[in-house]
Design a protein that fits this description.
With 92 residues, the protein is mainly alpha-helical. The chain has five helices and no strands. Helices cover 73% and strands 0% of the residues.
Length: 92
């Protein structure tokens, strides 16, 4: 289970880093006067695979290594558990 958690955390942090390096995302985060800012930020997060459900998909891929040991629901719980940890690194 720790391997799945660590794998999900690793993937999430890599995706977060790519998202934070995007110049358009940086502008959206800095300028709070942009109309529809939250929708645009959300679209960027989806573009870079930085959503909880996209992380669940990655956990499902990892599950195949442990198919006879853990089920998909346990894998998704580990992905959800990793989300708040990597959210603490997010630019605010």
């Amino acid at each position: 289970m720790d391997q799945i958690y660590n794998g999900c955390l690793d993937v999430a942090l890599k995706r977060l880093h790519k998202l934070q390096m995007d110049p358009e995302y940086q502008d959206l985060v800095k300028d709070k006067t942009i109309k529809g800012r939250s929708k645009k930020i959300r679209q960027k997060q989806i573009e870079y695979g930085y959503t909880e459900y996209q992380l669940h998909e990655k956990a499902a891929e990892m599950k195949h290594h442990f198919s006879d040991i853990v089920g998909i629901d346990e894998c998704q719980k580990q992905a959800t558990k990793a989300r708040p940890c990597q959210a603490s690194f997010q630019i605010r």
